[in-house]
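Internal tracking record. Fields below are filled automatically when a chain is submitted to the structure queue. Please do not edit lines marked as system-generated. If the sequence contains nonstandard residues, flag them in the REMARKS field before resubmitting.
Queue: standard
Priority: normal
Entity type: single polypeptide chain
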Amino acid sequence: MKKYSFKKIMPLSVLLILLFTPQDYLIAESLNYTISKPEVFKRNKASCSRLGNVYDACQWMTKVIVRNKGKNDISKLCLLMKVNKKKYELCYGQTKDLIIKKNGQKTFLINLTELMNISTDAERPYVKIISKI
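SYSTEM-GENERATED OUTPUT FOLLOWS
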């Protein structure tokens, strides 16, 4: 029976943990951010009630504010959203530049009618944000 010293086992276990931990989890640990409660509204409520769905005035929209409270800039952001009973993932910063400076904020306007096929005649959709960076 061989004896393994603590000094040999410890670095090996740390190395294995680092190899099998997802990289986005490690990046998210160094970021500190908040995501506001989503605000769901019609694109132009007054025009929608007067004229109907002219110029897409009755489309459902949601507004989300992401505040960066960390020391690093945020260049990529994925939002996991639950709309009614379906889950969606919206990612920003992969095709176009997205930078949220430290101590800065960015407002995202998401068109639920176009992206999630929510009918303009439907009741107010239930939107919940499950964050992911």
